[in-house]
Each structure stands twice: as structure tokens, then as C-alpha cells.
Design a protein that fits this description.
This protein is of the alpha/beta class and 216 residues long. It folds into two domains: 3-15 and 83-213, HAD superfamily/HAD-like (Rossmann fold); 17-78, Putative phosphatase, domain 2 (DNA polymerase, domain 1), CATH 1.10.150.240. The chain contains ten helices and eight strands. A six-stranded parallel β-sheet has the order 5-4-1-6-7-8, sandwiched between helices.
Length: 216
């Protein structure tokens, strides 16, 4: 049986906390917005589309896309400098690539995702990179997963897994009818992940090893 593993990005393979949080503050300053929250409020929303994050942080809906524009302008400049690979991420991809076909399913814009993957030398592991601009409905909707599988020409009999760190990843997998592993190295809460999937791992390498040993 063919094995397929779809990876989320932020909090699953990379630590982009500094890049994301600092760029939110940059956008607030550029837009003269009086942000009354803190770093944790921003981090708790990582995984959602940017426009939703800004609205949840107090920005009016009709201004959200202006904030997104200022965000993207700076993020493009600093993303690789302020992003780190999570521990064991490369080893996870090396192990996974030996027994599965791999792709990325992220809510981050694909145009910014690919330079990050290239920067860390891991783009070569992935067949497809599905980002925010490639779908109408981002996670937790199943569309990003289903569209990725369609582009990979995946058969329904395949052993398909989504690996992600937030409830958005697991909800998307559940809705798409694929297996999932929640990882604890990112932004999600363990208790919330456990409500949605039976499979919890410390990081992406643990998740890959679980998938490798698991027989559906």
C-alpha cells in the first residue's frame, strides 16, 4: 500500500515564532493601530489565515487586508533570517522519504513557503506545496488536503496521514477522511489535540516513526 504523509509547516517543521510575532508588531506600527494584546495572544492564533488573525486581534474586518499587505511586505524580507528548523525535522523528512510520498499543506502563503524550504534545503523532499493562495477554504476545511491529494494523483486506497501541531490540522484531516498525528512541538494544546486524534507525538520525527510502524 502506498504511504502518503502531508506536513503542516509552522510549529511542525519550522519555528517561525519570532518572524511572525515581530511582523505583527511591525504591521500594527505601520498602520498606527493600538494593539492592546501581547505575544501570547498572537502565538495562540498561529495556523489561522492572516486576515483572521488580525481580526481576532482587534482589527476591523474592512481593514484586515491592508494589515495583511503590510505584514507580507516585511515578512518576505525577514522570514528566512528569523526562522529556525525544529529539532529532528530534517531527520524526520529523511526517514519519511524512504517509505512515503511527501507534501506540505500550510496556511502560510506558498510564495513565502517555498523560499523557506529552499533556504533550509528541504524543498526536495516535497512533491506539492499547498499554501493559502491555492485554496478558497483554508484549514480546518478539508480543501487544502483534498486538493493536495488530487494533485498528487493519490488513490483512495493509500495510507494517508496529516502531521500537524494545531487543531486546525487535525480537523482538516478528519474532514478529509485521512489519518492524523498531532505533534507537541508547536502552537497547539495537547488536551485539544487529544480530543481530535488518537495519535500524539512529541515532534515530526516521532510522528514519522509512528506512521512507519502503524498498520492501518
Amino acid at each position: 500500500m502506498e504511504n502518503i504523509i502531508l506536513f503542516d509547516l509552522d510549529g511542525t517543521l519550522i519555528d517561525s515564532t519570532d518572524a511572525i510575532v515581530s511582523t505583527f508588531y511591525h504591521s500594527f506600527e505601520k498602520m498606527n493601530f493600538n494593539y492592546e494584546g501581547n505575544d501570547e495572544d498572537i502565538k495562540s492564533l498561529i495556523g489561522y489565515p492572516l486576515e483572521i488573525m488580525f481580526m481576532e486581534l482587534g482589527v476591523e474586518q474592512n481593514l484586515a487586508w491592508d494589515f495583511v499587505a503590510t505584514y507580507k511586505q516585511r515578512y518576505k524580507e525577514i522570514s528566512t533570517k528569523k526562522t529556525l528548523l525544529l529539532e529532528n525535522a530534517i531527520e524526520a523528512l529523511e526517514v519519511a522519504s524512504k517509505f512515503a510520498r511527501l507534501s506540505v499543506v500550510t496556511t502560510k502563503t506558498g510564495a513565502y513557503t517555498i523560499p523557506i524550504l529552499e533556504h533550509f534545503g528541504i524543498l526536495k523532499y516535497f512533491e506539492i506545496v499547498t499554501g493559502r493562495e491555492h485554496v478558497e477554504n483554508p484549514k480546518p476545511h478539508p480543501e487544502p488536503i483534498l486538493k493536495t491529494l488530487e494533485q498528487m494523483n493519490i488513490q483512495k486506497t493509500s495510507n494517508i496521514w496529516m502531521v500537524g501541531d494545531t487543531h486546525l490540522d487535525i480537523l482538516s484531516a478528519n474532514s478529509a477522511g485521512v489519518n492524523s498525528v498531532g505533534v507537541l512541538c508547536g502552537y497547539g494544546k495537547e488536551a485539544q489535540l487529544k480530543e481530535l486524534t488518537n495519535f500524539i507525538s512529541n515532534d515530526s520525527l516521532d510522528a514519522v516513526n509512528l506512521i512507519k510502524e502503524y498498520k492501518v
